[in-house]
Amino acid sequence: MSEEVEGTTASEEVQEMEDKVISPEKAEEAKLKARYPNLGAKPGGSDLLRKRLQKGQKYFDSGDYNMAKAKMKNKQLPSAPTEKTEITGGHIPTPQDLPQRKTSIVASKLAG
Amino acid sequence: MAGTGDGSSDVQWCFSQVKGAIDDEVAEADVISTVEFNHSGELLATGDKGGRVVIFQQEPESKNQPQCRGEYNVYSTFQSHEPEFDYLKSLEIEEKINKIRWLPQKNAAQFLLSTNDKTIKLWKISERDKRPEGYNLKEEDGRYRDFNTVTTLRVPVFMPMDLMVEASPRRVFANAHTYHINSISVNSDCETYLSADDLRINLWNLEINDRSFNIVDIKPANMEELTEVITAAEFHPNQCNTFVYSSSKGTIRLCDMRAAALCDQHTKLFEEPEDPNNRSFFSEIISSISDVKFSHSGRYMMTRDYLSVKVWDLNMETRPVETYQVHDYLRSKLCSLYENDCIFDKFECCWNGNDSVVMTGSYNNFFRMFDRGYRQDVTLEASRENSKPRSVLKPRKVSTGGKRKKDEISVDCLDFNKKILHTAWHPLDNIIAVATTNNLYIFQEKLN
């Protein structure tokens, strides 16, 4: 009789364990949804992919580009006192004014 | 003992060399973005985010140290790509070298293809160890001689000079990719190669740079319907008509170029069925394949997704024949790995020379090797602490449970900024090149 009691208890325990075991992935998903309740259901969907395809996009359009250029010119003024005589503001930015990213003229440290 | 030994069963790995700066502050440009041995293993090329290529050459084995294979020293370095700005699309084009692929050597010069996001270049690397001397009309420094001083004629001769290695761009393959190039692969016919971006794959002739054929196009008519992108592509090592490409959804398609000009219809589709019970928000992201590599034999291919490495038999599409867990303990960290974007890290993988062992990188500057025959795996670390010459690398272990043994490192202590994304295995010997963020480690098999 004692065996039967033990048997029932064991199976109950097993049942409890099964209920508690969630895959670690699903537990992580629950954590993420708790932090970001507005997260869409489709994770790998077109939003994520389109962000990937648009990597490197610097300006939304030419208006955005010119605004950014104007901001840059304003920022540069205080640090370049020698250019006080230059007229700014009346100058329409052109592609030539876009700050070119410096090319790496420094040799690779792997070759050092 | 030359030739490939078996994997982790009896091979011990020793530190050989490390290249790069020791500073803690890593400049963006110094981040290594690709590593590739050439077909003989004599040359090792690296590309970085600054658009530079550095090629190392193995010294011939010295008689003094017959037990040690030659060291790799700088052979050539050049600026392959420069940053560009596409004014029409307002797109910044990074100079980062995404891939380097060597051409099989046909003559004295070496050729390699290097690519950034948009442009592929064919570079010729040639040696000059002689120069002509004894011109009649010119002095040795190039100035022209006064004709009146020329009284006799002589035949110029080639005299030895210090070795000079020159890299020159022979072809520029541009303007063929709207999206970002992720792979290039040279065909076994040595005449053509493919380049793949997120949505298209193009076929080029190495001699012709103003034309390329589009062979795969998965761009949907309506971009709102976009569900997957191409993540990697490779030509079969000996069947010149066959190539594969992998997707962000974890599938691999094998295509036969004899079937049609446009290979949108795959010949084979390799996909492991997913257990619907295990599906989670992260499932698709971690199933995205970051690298695909054919075995040297051409019988198998290997894919790398976020948590595992899978070996597929080309004759069986339904599931991989082998699956190796790289760092399964990260499954319970996916939430934070998604938040810090590490879940999108693209790890590569590689085969050893006889296809008996596969290798891939992980975090904390760990890298893993899986011996397919002996069913053993090992975790090793690339760090300056283990960088005494010829010191044997000690296997590392990550502890997942509560009890952490001595020498084990807990999952929470792993440094996710120290990632090994790029590794390469010498085609013939047990020599490996492992790239940390800005350093290149070379390890060799312990020979006795």
TrEMBL record, chain A:
Start and end residues of each stretch annotated as Disordered: 1-24, 72-112
Pfam families reported in the protein's UniProt record: Endosulfine
TM region(s), chain numbering: none
Main location: cytoplasm
Subcellular localization: Cytoplasm
A GO biological process held by the record: cell division
One annotated GO molecular function: protein phosphatase inhibitor activity
One GO location term (cellular component): cytoplasm
Domain of life: Eukaryota
Keywords: Cell cycle, Cell division, Cytoplasm, Mitosis, Phosphoprotein, Protein phosphatase inhibitor
Annotated family: Belongs to the endosulfine family.
PANTHER family: CAMP-REGULATED PHOSPHOPROTEIN 19 (PTHR10358:SF4), ENDOSULFINE (PTHR10358)
Function: Protein phosphatase inhibitor that specifically inhibits protein phosphatase 2A (PP2A) during mitosis.
Name of this chain's protein: cAMP-regulated phosphoprotein 19-like
Natural source organism: Xyrichtys novacula (Pearly razorfish)
From TrEMBL, chain B:
Signal sequence, renumbered to the chain: none
Keyword Mitochondrion in record: no
Cited Gene3D superfamilies: YVTN repeat-like/Quinoprotein amine dehydrogenase (2.130.10.10)
Keyword entries, A-Z: Repeat, WD repeat
Domain of life, per lineage: Eukaryota
PROSITE patterns, sorted: PR55_1, PR55_2
Gene Ontology terms: cellular component: protein phosphatase type 2A complex
MF (Gene Ontology): protein phosphatase regulator activity
Family stated for the protein in its record: Belongs to the phosphatase 2A regulatory subunit B family.
Assembly and interaction partners: PP2A consists of a common heterodimeric core enzyme, composed of a 36 kDa catalytic subunit (subunit C) and a 65 kDa constant regulatory subunit (PR65 or subunit A), that associates with a variety of regulatory subunits.
PANTHER family: PROTEIN PHOSPHATASE PP2A REGULATORY SUBUNIT B (PTHR11871)
Stated name of the protein: Serine/threonine-protein phosphatase 2A 55 kDa regulatory subunit B
